[in-house]
């Protein structure tokens, strides 16, 4: 299923669209069976979406960092 979703995203990126993925965790948790945003970022940046520009954002970043990331996404730098 994951490969199918990733291929769908890649297809749309190749068509000039952008994508974002919502992750429920900022950091690893033993209570929740899900990957953290940092784990997914590393995997996507190095493997799954390595030929594209990948960034991450989460609520623990400083507001200026979040604003910069969102502005770059808006301007299609990611």
Question: How does this structure look, described?
Answer:
The chain is mostly helical. The chain has one domain. Helix content is 47%, strand content 0%. It contains 3 helices and no strands. The chain has helices spanning 2-14, 37-48, 63-74. The longest helix has 13 residues, at 2-14. The radius of gyration is 13 Å and the shape is flat. The model has no long low-confidence stretch (mean pLDDT 90).
Strand and helix order: HHH
State the distance separating the first and last CA atoms.
Answer: 24 Å
Largest sheet: none
- Quickly count the helices: 3
Task: List its salient traits.
single chain; 78 residues; mainly alpha
Please outline what is shown here:
The protein contains 3 helices and no strands.
Helices and strands, with pairings:
Blueprint lengths: L1 H13 L22 H12 L14 H12 L4
